[in-house]
Design a protein that fits this description.
The chain is 41% helix and 19% strand. It is an alpha/beta fold and 322 residues long. β1, α4 and β2 form a beta-alpha-beta unit. The radius of gyration is 22 Å and the shape is globular.
């Protein structure tokens, strides 16, 4: 929990009560929220109301939930809004219905909205995102040269399925994710067909089955994501990356390593309240995110998983509130 100033029992009760009354969405219990709350009731009441965009992967949920729990405990009213990433979310920020994207993989795709003053980039969140094409580890062990993209056509027949039209099945990332699979297939003259999986869970199912049954599969995946600790995958190596904006990518080279960005509305900057401090200062590691993601995937409520991390990292959290 965060370091507290000495205060009367009455002030502590008021702080915890205020945090509960101002919360806009569910979270940990009274004791858990009080562990991250200041003891000055006036300070608790000073924070505004904010909406956090929620994107459809568990690592994002981990980051957003930690910010949510800390902000709520410091008097902010927080709601969470499920949205597709990129343009849909940026439009919502411009409309004033969403205030924060805690993890954006876009490499500057928000610039149009930033130019209009609707979106403000406030730095990276500490996570390094690495997107790529992966095969089950057993395939890399059995065919060591398969991880070189120049050799993919040599093995394309292994990946043929009923839906891949006589070519290798190339499982793409879900709609809304940063993907250039079709460009990669075309530019590198690969004998594969891009197949949309529709969701992260569908990709998990593909790779899980391929690992368990030792059936070939090649698909889109990324880190940070705790799934790699459960099902080992090997990344296909394409020529070194030379792009950041997927719209400008030729498809010849690999995905970039991306410091993942935090985006806010001007409202957050102008408020200069507890939420502003938390969001500006929030930074952590891939391991931090994966630890919470693992708890969530095992069935723990996201708020409880987030509070567990908050309680175990009091010094880090206190630094975000300065």
């Amino acid at each position: 929990m965060i370091q507290k100033k000495k205060a009367t029992a009455k002030a502590s009760v008021l702080a915890a009560a205020a945090a509960l009354l101002l919360s806009a969405c569910g979270g940990a219990g009274v004791d858990a929220e009080a562990s991250a709350a200041p003891t000055d009731a006036a300070e608790v009441a000073a924070c505004g109301s904010y909406a956090i965009a929620m994107h459809a992967w568990v690592g994002y949920t981990a980051s957003a939930q930690v910010v949510t729990e800390i902000a709520k405990a410091n008097g902010c009213a927080i709601s969470q809004v499920s949205l597709a990433e990129a343009g849909v979310t940026y439009d919502a920020m411009e409309a004033g219905s969403v205030d924060l994207v805690i993890e954006d993989w876009g490499g500057g795709r928000w610039q149009e909205w930033a130019d209009r003053g609707a979106v403000v980039e406030i730095g990276d969140n500490g996570n390094i995102g690495i997107i790529g094409m992966y095969v089950p580890q057993w395939m890399a062990d059995e065919y060591p040269d398969i991880t070189d993209s120049a050799n993919l056509n040599k093995y394309a027949d292994l990946f043929v399925t009923d839906e891949s039209k006589g070519k290798g099945a190339w499982y793409e990332g879900p709609p809304g994710y940063t993907t250039i699979g079709e460009k990669m297939i075309s530019a590198n003259k690969l004998n594969f067909t891009a197949i949309s999986t529709g969701s992260e869970q569908a990709l998990i199912d593909v790779f899980t089955k391929a690992a368990e049954d030792k059936t070939p599969a090649i698909g889109y995946w990324y880190t940070p994501q705790n799934f790699l600790a459960k099902v080992p995958l090997a990344r296909i190596k394409f020529p070194a990356n030379d792009w950041t904006d997927p719209e400008q990518a030729s498809g010849l080279t690999d995905y970039p390593e991306l410091p993942l960005q935090k985006l806010v509305t001007p409202k957050v900057i102008d408020a200069n309240d507890a939420f502003t401090k938390i969001v500006k200062n929030f930074t952590w590691t891939n391991d931090d995110q994966n630890a919470i993601a693992a708890d969530i995937e095992s069935g723990t409520d996201p708020a409880v998983a987030a509070q567990k991390w908050i309680d175990a990292n009091a010094e880090t959290v206190a630094g975000w509130l300065k």
